[in-house]
Every structure is written in C-alpha cells, then in structure tokens.
Amino acid sequence: MKKVMIMGVGPGFGLALAQKFGEQGNTIVLVARNSGRLTEYQEELAENEIKASCHAVDVTKHEQVQQLFQDESEVDTLIYNVGNTALDDPLTSSLDDIKATFETNVLGCIDACQQFVNTKRPQTILVTGGGAALHPSALTTTLSLTKAALRSYVLSLHDVLKEKGIYVGLLTIQGIADVGAAMQPIKVANAYVEAAQQRNNAEIFYPNNQGSKLSEFEQLQQLAKDPKTVEKVLKNHPEFAKYLDYFKN
C-alpha cells in the first residue's frame, strides 16, 4: 500500500483527489490550514473505507512544512494542490498581496518538493497548474504571473528528477471547478490518477489534452450569459463577486 499526500485539501479538487487515490488502495495524508475541515474530510473518507491522516499546515511557513515531512517521511506521492486564485489587476494590487500569493502559489510548492525528495521513498510529484499561466490578463494579473512561475519551476524539476526515477507532472487545469461537465472535481481527479499511473508527460493539459485558446476566465465570460452559471460560480468562489460585471460583459 502506498501513501499519497495531498497538500491543499478543500471541498473541490482536493477532496476528490483524496477519494480517487484512496479508491486505488492508497493511504491518504490530508494537508490544509483548517484543522476542523480536515477532520470532517477524514471522517468522510473513513465512511468510504479510505484510511487517512490529517495535518494542519500553512505552506508559507517553512518550519511547519519541514515538520510535516519529518512526521510523514514515508510518502510515495506528493500532490501540491494549494493555490490562491484571487482576481486582481496590475495597477491596484498591493505589493503585500502579490508577495503573499507568490509565497502560496510558488514558494510553498518549491519548499514542499525540496522537503519531499529528501524523504525515504519519493516516487511521484503532481502539481496543480492553471490555464492562467498561458493566458495572462488584467483580471488575473497575480494569478497568471504566479502560475507561470510555478509552471517554469515544475517543468524544470521534471527534467532534473527524471534522472533519479522520480516522476514530476504538471496538471494544467483549464477551467473552474464545477463549471461545465468536464470540470466536475471527480473527473479532474481522474486525470491525476492517470498521470501517476502513466508517468510520462511533464505537462498534462486538462481537459482535451491540449492547451486551450481561451483562459478559464474567458471561458467563464462566455458561460456567464446563463444566470444559473453565475450563481454556481459565486457560490463556490464568493471572492469573484466584485468582478461580476466582467462576467456579464
């Protein structure tokens, strides 16, 4: 039985990843900042006969990440699914906010990967990227620049670690959770399972196995003609509310 650590477990992709990898017979290590929710997820997985442990960790705190991998030194697969997806623009975003997002989206991943490769049996690293890395826009300024930096790091890491027999894969997710059939979390999670099994491509584009011509937010703008879609998006991403006019234009 293998052990899979998922950093960034929430009600969307993170929990779906835990369920799918758990169904494969893996023991799951749940990592997020909210200890209360982690306990709920652990109990939910237990109801489905999936064994899981949980750790409340802030990925921007090096000491906490270091302690995590000391406590969980026998993880085979690391999935970095942490991400700040707040929308902003290039003129009004504060430097403090940009730094905080960079620490979460990029430096947290680098720290986790460096700690993981020095544990007992690292075999696989999967990282959640995003279409914003390929389609910068005024609305996604910091998200785009951090996802682009993350993409650069992960692709470089792939080249270095393949010589050591460790597979690194970037999952470039080109959509928003629960918006459209392809973006149902359990379907997205299947792509991670396949990547871990196939262990070949440095970057996996989801959906359609190729880069999209539109960013996820441009896709959303098209879908926003349907009020029900807007309602669903705002339910899952209330931080998008102040950009509601963009979705309607």
- Count of alpha/pi helices: 9
The count of DSSP E runs of length 2 or more, i.e. the number of strands, is 7
- Uncertain spans: none
H/E element order: EHEHEHEHEHEHEHHH
User: Any idea what the shape is?
Assistant: globular
Q: Can you tell me the CATH topology?
A: Rossmann fold
Main pleated-sheet profile: 7 strands, parallel
CATH architecture level-2 label: 3-Layer(aba) Sandwich
| Relevant CATH superfamily | NAD(P)-binding Rossmann-like Domain
Can you put this structure into words, describing what you see?
Helices cover 46% and strands 15% of the residues. By secondary structure, it is α/β, with parallel strands linked by helices. It has a single domain, classed as NAD(P)-binding Rossmann-like Domain (Rossmann fold, 3-Layer(aba) Sandwich). It has a 7-stranded parallel β-sheet, sandwiched between helices. Helix 1 packs across helix 6, helix 3 packs parallel to helix 4 and helix 4 runs parallel beside helix 5. The relative contact order is 0.12.
Structure, briefly:
With 249 residues, this protein is of the alpha/beta class. It has helices at 13-23, 35-47, 62-71, 95-116, 141-161, 185-198, 216-223, 227-236, 244-248, and strands spanning 3-7, 27-32, 52-56, 77-80, 124-130, 167-173, 203-206.
